[in-house]
Amino acid sequence: MLIRIDPRATEPIYVQIEREVRRAIAAGEVSAGDRLPAARDLASSLEVNMHTVLRAYTELREAGVIDLRRGRGAVVLPQEATAPEVTRAVADLIETARRHGIPLSQLHQALDEGAQP
């Protein structure tokens, strides 16, 4: 699993890490039961603070994406399959955003705001 971050981005690094882990799961690079890199190792390879990685892992745990236990590490949990209709809608949305020059970070923000009750 390759995680890329942009330290110059306006999006917090922990959010970038969380997004990259989700992307890796969606792309099949990691599967249910696979262990994620230890927070200390990932922080070292990304040249970020270990607590930044731990925050990303905590967010993923709270979202039900991973199981995080001291001494055992972070393990990917089984995920429900996304409905094909939703997958197509997301692909269409991303394509439309690209055509209009809307950066992914802005699209994420719009989705987050749209999901608010």
UniProtKB/TrEMBL annotation:
Alphabetized InterPro entries for the sequence: Tscrpt_reg_HTH_GntR, WH-like_DNA-bd_sf, WH_DNA-bd_sf
GO terms (molecular function) for this protein are: DNA binding; DNA-binding transcription factor activity
Q: Which CDD domains match?
A: WHTH_GntR
- Keyword terms of this UniProt record: DNA-binding, Transcription, Transcription regulation
Q: Which residues form the HTH gntR-type domain?
A: 11-79
Source organism, top-level taxon: Bacteria
**Name the UniProt record assigns to this protein:** GntR family transcriptional regulator
